[in-house]
């Protein structure tokens, strides 16, 4: 197992799940880099055949070790969200410790390195996040889930309300998904010219690859081994030099089509800036004991019942949504609607620009008085029930901004290996996988 990066932050399972869930779902494994091996000579596949092979993959069970490695070139973020001396979450900062801890975890999850074991079968899942001297576990079963932290010796059991028919809920959800798909298909067929039919999945894939080819060189790389598995390699390279991204690589299992690896390398770099996946993977069903959990006697155990809507509540929600959609059809634009982003450039060099000041004003209008409104005691920007930031929170945000960014013409900017962000003096935010100079040019010219 590769050594893990050290640091004060511990990842919580509740935050790891959404980030790791995607690579779990595609059975990803670490590729840093893919191990080329002359002994690996899989049957040749074209790009189209390899993508179709991966899309058809169906892996019902597996176990393995996920490793995330991140070298984005970010400044030290450890003090921004809690506890660090002089950090935003340090003494004198906001008392919302839970929020600070959550931000700390999100920052570490997006920018750090960690290991986690994963176990899956058709009815159970377990995620075991490995810390330096402890671990967190998430157990998911057919009718309950456990969140367990060995360091704090706490276990939280999540259950469904008594009498919940999970099978019926799943059947209802499947039926609703099929109904929506049928409606979408009917609308699409009605818009087709006479004599034409909807494209087949293969035709849709071909069209998607054709569109991708306009901006990206897609190729099949060298066969190799990942986590002991023979694998194909799919390589995506931007056709422009105007992006920070050099290439994206995926390893695809040669036997079952599962994606075994993913990595992103910055332009001109030799090693990936970001990679995530398995260093070890086994596609057989894990031993049932891997999913068994019984809290120890000295653990603090709590229970939470997950709110599950009844069939009547689902029906009412659906009716309300349809009524709202009908009422909105043809109506004049709502002045409180969030502004649409402006997109500069195209493909890998695209830059998204958002008027942050207008967006924040629209959010404030929807949630209560604007941030500049006076509170009952006459203080401007007091939070209270309005949700507006306090002066202390604004000061914390300003400190974080200065810690993360550097001054540039017209604002402040942050550039990592793969992404740049520009915050302009007039309240706009520009983001893209391009150099900061490109953002500054777009901000100045408005092109």
TrEMBL record:
Transmembrane segments: none annotated. The keyword Membrane does not apply. Residues 80-92 have a biased composition (Gly residues). Keywords: Lipoprotein. Residues 74-97, 315-343, 366-392 are annotated as: Disordered. Residues 370-392 have a biased composition (Low complexity). This is Outer membrane lipoprotein carrier protein LolA. It comes from Agromyces aurantiacus.
